[in-house]
Q: What sequence folds into this?
């Protein structure tokens, strides 16, 4: 398995044809990282990879089925809609291996059951991330991140990012590896928000920002003030 | 009843001897606004008023029982701990009058029932603010704000604020009146976060920031990025 941190490794993005996953693919491609876009449909994954290469000439990106994508890197990003999270993780049971990190970016918006995007669903385990941790094979560790970063902003390479993302997980070392990848995207800072259970709150930032977006016709993000300058992960 | 917006009006702070209420009193006193500190104990309210005058010479501040305090201004701030919210509102039933705004700042931290301050309680109505709206006399409107502003930062007049506070409420005009008072504190920007039900999320920022504070040994706050420059309440 390629290391996601090595310069020639790849970052698998499960659901990478969706808005968030595709935006991340663009930004990481621009930063020179290799990407594997995963989709239920290999055709759509391949199409998305072509679009990334067209937007970022020279990008190292390929499109694969979700299971092959999940095998292609140590740190796997899950960017499917909440509606598809459970089914996707079921389908990945044979693909994910002990030692991998799964970065869950899903948010239980009520929109998943035709409710409002400014409201959220109660998840039995407490958060989408905790549901993911329950579903992944033993030895796979879930980290939760990237809830509050808007897909439209990510996808518009002309927009400079200037915001934070909260990272929740039970081990700081795991979070730091994820943070290092996230911070390869210029203008995006990763903040250690606590254990995985704190995803219960971090996931709620999405409906909150959607509510703020509606009021100000913008794509809002979050900054945590009062943090020390410089490196947050030493 | 004095108008809270007029230059000679007063801002009642119920629970103003507590950390958050006292910090707000200091900041508003410094901004030249009149304050009425409310407490169950008139003595403690009076003592707190003396302390404010000592920290901010020339401050217009007095200490009263909660019920008399609640009668002294159009916009009443409720800054008691969640544990005391329900009892306090019961006791204010004859003091609050139709047309008043009650700004609920309480947060249902699990610490209220000897749990962790990084966790929160589920409130039947959805949020502390919605519980407050259920309990106030008819004609009193609840607005929710100031959850993420740290009391230690407010109380340290040497620290310049540089953060936002989310304001939730069902009518923009009510929120705008509250925002105008909040923004009398330099460095504090009030952001329209949506209807009162959004307090379910805004209240969760407190345990989130407490979790971040523990990791970075700081007093963190929140900034919403991507908002238009300038006035947010036109």
A:
């Amino acid at each position: 398995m390629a290391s996601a941190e090595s310069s020639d490794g790849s970052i698998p993005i499960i659901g990478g044809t969706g808005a968030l996953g595709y935006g991340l693919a663009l930004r990481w491609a621009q930063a020179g990282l290799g990407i594997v876009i995963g989709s239920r449909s290999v055709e759509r994954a391949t199409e998305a990879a072509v679009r990334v290469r067209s937007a970022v000439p020279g990008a190292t990106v390929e499109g694969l089925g979700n299971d092959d994508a999940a095998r292609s890197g140590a740190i796997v990003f899950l960017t499917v809609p909440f509606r598809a999270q459970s089914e996707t993780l079921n389908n990945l049971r044979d693909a994910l291996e002990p030692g991998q990190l799964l970065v869950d970016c899903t948010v239980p918006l009520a929109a998943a059951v035709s409710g409002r995007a400014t409201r959220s669903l109660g998840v039995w385990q407490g958060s989408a991330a905790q549901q993911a941790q329950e579903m992944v094979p033993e030895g796979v560790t879930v980290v939760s991140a990237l809830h509050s970063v808007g897909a439209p902003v990510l996808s518009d390479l002309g927009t400079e990012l200037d915001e934070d993302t909260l990272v929740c997980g039970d081990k700081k070392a795991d979070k730091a590896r994820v943070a290092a990848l996230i911070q390869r995207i210029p203008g995006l800072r990763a903040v250690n928000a606590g254990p995985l259970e704190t995803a219960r709150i971090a996931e709620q930032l999405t409906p909150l920002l959607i509510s703020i977006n509606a009021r100000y016709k913008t794509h809002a993000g979050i900054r945590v003030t009062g943090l020390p300058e410089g490196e947050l992960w030493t």
Remarks:
- Chain A touches chain B at residues 118-120, 150, 153, 162-163, 166, 191-194, 197-198, 200-202, 204-205, 207-209, 211-212, 214-216, 218-228, 232 (CB under 8 Å).
- Chain A is about 35% helix and 20% strand.
